[in-house]
Amino acid sequence: MATNANVGLLVPSFFAGQPPTMDEYTSFFRSAEDMGFHSLWFTDRVFHQINILETFTLMTVAATVTSRVRLGTAVLLFVLRHPVLVAKAMATLDHLSGGRVTLGISLGGRDNEFGPMGVSMRRRVSKFTEDLTVMRKLWTERNVTFHGRFYDMDDVNVDPKPVQKSGIPIIIGGSADAVYKRAAEADGWVAGGGLNAEAYALACRKIRQYALDSSRDPNILDTGKLMYVYVNEDRNQAKQRLESFCHAYYGPQYDVDDNCAFGQADECAEFIQSYIDAGAKTILLGPTWPDVAQISRIAQEELPRLRLNMG
């Protein structure tokens, strides 16, 4: 049973209405760091019916106005992007941020995203595997030569390399046995906005076993959990705010009661703690807007109620 966790923020980046301004984001990023949040996390989507801001652009803004907080993707739709360009972008961000980057990736996207991006859904698993191999080689080797199913390259380099001595951590997103196996071979796992605490605990146990089966120490793996949050004395008002936000992105089938922390601080803390106790080492709390007042309430009212490690 986990007794502590790091707590970060999932940066709100999708909106049914007009997105926030640069000033709102920069104030949010600076405040999150000043309040001691462990990390800032950025989601990814290519096509949608609502406004969604581009991942690397928003991460770069955050890197520019912070100096300590970690920066991660949760998660990048990896197979929809060219691995050489991902390797280049992430290595550059790692260099400019002083080694603060974590890359969360998944097979991703929705069915209607693959065709327009020129990616075959039927070959997405093999492409994911090859993309990951190519990216890691470009981060760690010089004069890379690689001839695979999707890419042919001779004597190529991506510089600068990542500055983190152990490399940019790679965590895997999703909720299937194949995902858990990949996570056990990477640096960890992050669950999205679904999975109750019991299902989450079962997934953590599976990942630990897969790691042991591969002769890896499961204790070195990160386990993350994303959940949307809204602190408000009026529980119904908090729920309505989350429903408006989440349903615009996921659709009306998304169950806020089962998947979100909302209401008074003690109610939110109890919900969050259930995932820490289930095995979460990193909690990604998602507010509905880059609202400094809301994350201040989270920092001052919720976090003291949790058994965790800030910073």
Strand order of the largest sheet: 1-3-5-7-10-11-12-14
Unreliable parts? none
Share of residues in strands: 15-25%
Q: Which class of secondary structure composition applies to the elements?
A: alpha/beta
Question: What this model shows, in words?
Answer:
With 311 residues, the protein is α/β, with parallel strands linked by helices. Helices cover 42% and strands 19% of the residues. It has 11 helices and 14 strands. The strands form 3 sheets. Strands 1-3-5-7-10-11-12-14 form an 8-stranded parallel barrel, surrounded by 8 helices. A two-stranded antiparallel ribbon has the order 2-4. It is globular, with a radius of gyration of 19 Å. The mean pLDDT is 96.
Summarize the topology.
Layout: E1 6-10, E2 14-15, H1 22-34, E3 39-42, E4 51-52, H2 55-65, E5 70-73, E6 76-77, H3 83-97, E7 101-106, H4 111-114, H5 124-140, E8 144-147, E9 152-156, E10 170-173, H6 177-185, E11 188-191, H7 197-213, E12 222-231, H8 235-250, H9 256-259, E13 261-263, H10 265-278, E14 282-286, H11 292-302
Parallel strand pairs: 1-3, 1-14, 3-5, 5-7, 6-7, 7-10, 10-11, 11-12, 12-13, 12-14
Antiparallel strand pairs: 2-4, 8-9
